[in-house]
């Protein structure tokens, strides 16, 4: 993953592009909203089926990763900003040992932040996949769609972990950072990794979008309600846009040496992770409300004319085979 590397004596930039307080303020505001969305989701579960499913567990874990990211930057953002300002000549450096220690703390913290980012995005995708698995557990040959997408999402996660330049994130050598991690070839490599992560992220989201369209094709409901469901699940497009903006922002804010401005990169990483978390949490709540039955008979039919009953909490099986508003038979 692209990361900015600045040795203590290296110049070539104009300092952080995002102000310190704005950086932390946006991250904490996004995390606070995610906490509210999580509370609403849990309340919805309590008032509805009174149980948690696998997709709920993944969503809760994703929220905990987002919270951990906010806590990490609260503790370490000062070291990042100090290192960037010293490298740009905007603040007088302290002792050599202090500059080196704070630079190394920043390098290690951004490594942790990127691992949290990758894990948050992957966990949200798993939450969506297991949510759709509950919806489609009664659909014939549903696994032929679900399993390949699951494997692709997992492969994407491990590809990003496997291509990360660990040597520049775990080193304690300032000389190594100044040479190997500050070279033109390293900056070119990190650019490729950034673009690759964006492509894999967008493609995996697009593949996940195939699933709700496939599910709704099997159910005969009013066209207006079907469009509402499709619009609900199509909010994934928002996350795709944020992922593209994150990559474009990082590429557009490079300094003359080819290094990324980490303040933009990590700010947009936090935005994408939190927006993804909102999408995962609110889609379940809105899906339940959207599927509470029509004002008429409150019944739906499949493409072969079989009748579907409205949602009932007593119908929820241990395998969680119901969408909160629609039962999807074979």
TrEMBL record:
The chain crosses the membrane at residues 20-40, 52-73, 111-133, 145-166, 186-215, 227-245, 265-281. One of its GO terms (cellular component) is membrane. Residues 40-282 form the Rhodopsin domain. Keywords: Membrane, Transmembrane, Transmembrane helix. It is found in: Membrane. The keyword Cytoplasm does not apply. Pfam families: Fung_rhodopsin. It is a multi-pass membrane protein. InterPro entries: Rhodopsin_dom_fungi, SAT4-like. Residues 297-318 have a biased composition (Polar residues). Residues 289-330 are annotated as: Disordered. Its main location: membrane. It comes from the Eukaryota. Belongs to the SAT4 family. This is Rhodopsin domain-containing protein. It comes from Xylaria bambusicola.
């Amino acid at each position: 993953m692209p990361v900015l590397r600045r040795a203590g004596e290296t110049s070539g930039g104009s300092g952080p592009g995002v102000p310190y307080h704005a950086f932390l303020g946006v991250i904490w505001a996004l995390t606070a909203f995610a906490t509210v969305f999580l509370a609403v989701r849990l309340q919805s579960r309590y008032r509805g089926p009174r149980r948690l499913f696998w997709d709920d567990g993944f969503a809760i874990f994703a929220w905990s990763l987002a919270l951990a990211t906010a806590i990490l930057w609260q503790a370490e953002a000062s070291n990042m900003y100090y290192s960037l300002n010293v490298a740009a000549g905007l603040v007088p450096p302290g002792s050599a040992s202090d500059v080196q220690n704070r630079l190394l703390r920043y390098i290690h913290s951004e490594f942790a932040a990127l691992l949290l980012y990758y894990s948050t995005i992957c966990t949200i995708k798993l939450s969506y996949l297991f949510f759709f698995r509950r919806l489609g557990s009664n659909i014939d040959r549903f696994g032929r769609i679900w399993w390949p997408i699951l494997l692709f999402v997992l492969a994407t996660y491990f590809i990003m972990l496997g291509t990360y330049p660990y040597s520049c994130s775990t080193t304690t050598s300032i000389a190594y950072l100044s040479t190997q991690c500050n070279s033109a070839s390293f900056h070119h490599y990190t650019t490729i990794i950034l673009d690759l992560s964006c492509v894999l992220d967008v493609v995996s989201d697009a593949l996940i979008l195939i699933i709700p369209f496939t599910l709704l094709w099997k159910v005969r409901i009013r066209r207006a309600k079907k469009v509402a469901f499709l619009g609900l699940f199509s909010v994934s497009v928002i996350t795709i846009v944020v992922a593209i903006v994150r990559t474009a922002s990082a590429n557009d804010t490079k300094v003359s040496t080819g290094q990324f401005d980490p303040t933009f990169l990590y700010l947009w990483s936090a935005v994408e992770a939190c927006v993804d978390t909102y999408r995962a949490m609110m889609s379940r709540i809105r899906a339940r409300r959207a599927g509470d039955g029509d004002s008429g008979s409150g019944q739906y039919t499949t493409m072969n004319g079989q009748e579907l009953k409205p949602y009932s909490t007593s119908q929820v099986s241990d395998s969680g085979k119901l969408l909160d508003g629609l039962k999807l038979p074979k």
